[in-house]
Amino acid sequence: MAVIAKHCPDIKVTVVDINPEQIKKWNSDKLPIFEPGLDDVVKAVRGKNLFFTTDIDAAIKESAMIFVSVNTPTKTTGVGAGRAANLRMWELAARHIAKVANGPKIVIEKSTLPVRTAHSMRRVLNANDRKIEFEILSNPEFLAEGTAMGDLTKPDRILIGGMNTDAGKKAIAQLVWVYKHWVPEERILTTNLWSSELSKLVANAFLAQRISSINSISALCEITGAYVQEVSRAIGFDHRIGPYFLNASVGFGGSCFQKDILNLVYLCESFGLDTVAAYWNQVVIMNDWQKKRFSMKIIEKLFNTISGKKIALYGFAFKKNTGDTRETPALFVAGHLLEERAKIAIYDPKVDPEQVKHDFEEYKLMPAGCKFEDYVTIYNDPYAAAKESHAVAVITEWDEFKTYDYSKIYASMSKPAFVFDGRNILDHAALKQIGFDVFAIGKPFGSKISMDDLS
Ligand SMILES: NC(=O)c1ccc[n+]([C@@H]2O[C@H](COP(=O)([O-])OP(=O)(O)OC[C@H]3O[C@@H](n4cnc5c(N)ncnc54)[C@H](O)[C@@H]3O)[C@@H](O)[C@H]2O)c1
């Protein structure tokens, strides 16, 4: 919405949220999320044509278009629990709009939703007793956290789905007009509603599938002596494959990939497409396996006993350039290490310590009888986090991790000192030179057929 406001000075954009704390933060100097470049844009347009308010009713009344971007998490109870999307927030928002609206509105699905959600929402909206007409459009969001501002400023495409009726076409044209303020027309795709809704799920499924595919190969590399980064490079040169999203890692996280694939799996199952569902479900299974493989490797290499040993986790966000920790592999790895009663030291340049504590509580990671304070310490200095630890595990690919003085870190650690590079970002040869035992995803570690031995 900030980017729309920036590029469309002739449009008034009002952002509303039922959570007053969020709105307070959006109106303050410290925005509620860290996203490179966002502060500048918000500060440039806030109070001019971008407003944040909790007065939802007034905003509904004065708006011609309403983007609904509420959360759509995976259901935790009831039918489809663990896979289906929870549409409660969406339906509540739609009912609120239907109740308060004082004239026709275009309601836009910005949240990621299961295919055919627009059908149900249309019925909810148009069931109002004042005969107000609502047109519903699907306009899924393809931005990636960490690069959101660039993604929004120069999008690969804008996707708009609508009904193939006169009113539907008119609504599509109005939304196209908004984006045309800064997006070349050839990049604005219009489709039917169901194609648009489904494309978002499919895009995320394909992206996550690439990560799981290369991660599956990383396991094979570790055994055979191939280097996964060399394999990625070699296959990425093929223009049919392309070089992106081929970095093997500790696993994908974030609020979207897992949720959206599980949603797709559930949809396929509900339509009786069990083989299709099982195919996509394997992407999530592979991701869970990769996270577990990484933490198992730490346990195994530290002589199968990590009880009481300090292990430093570098990074807690699910990827670099964001403070977002939703579904971060760090939680999975930390939880697994805690089961073995390791002492966890966490350093992340952007994640709020309160968030880390909250996540441990929410995911119930502390084993029975163990207190968070006794087992987990959050540091604001990476050197202090590593001091006296047995291992440093890189969980997030923050660029600053590449710049540290690893000789200094090595000198302060217990010996033998290990580095587990879950992102393949460090200079492994240099670390070995310093004295570290190094394990990196997709590289052989002391295996019988090590390329290191051959060179
Ligand atoms: N985060 C991403 O990178 C990303 C990218 C593409 C799509 N999406 C999709 O966008 C949607 C939102 O994701 P998010 O990460 O921003 O979620 P979020 O949980 O961070 O934010 C959702 C916000 O909606 C508010 N809300 C809930 N019900 C409301 C209502 N009735 N009226 C007003 N506000 C209400 C909540 O208080 C919350 O602040 C999801 O469907 C997600 O899949 C997210």
Word description of this protein:
Helix 5 runs parallel beside helix 6, helix 9 packs parallel to helix 12 and helix 11 packs antiparallel against helix 12. It is built from 19 helices and 13 strands. It starts with a helix and ends with a helix. The C terminus is likely disordered. The longest helix has 32 residues. The protein has a 6-stranded parallel β-sheet with strand order 10-9-8-11-12-13, sandwiched between helices. It is 44% helix and 13% strand. With 455 residues, the protein is an alpha/beta fold. It has 2 domains: 182 residues, Rossmann fold, CATH 3.40.50; 228 residues, Rossmann fold. The site of nicotinamide-adenine-dinucleotide has 20 residues, from helix 5.
Name of the CATH homologous superfamily of the largest domain: NAD(P)-binding Rossmann-like Domain
User: What is the CATH class designation of the largest domain?
Assistant: Alpha Beta
Q: Terminal Cα separation, in Å?
A: 54 Å
Bound heterogens, unique: nicotinamide-adenine-dinucleotide
Tell me, rounded to a whole number, the average pLDDT. 96
Number of domains as seen in the coordinates = 2
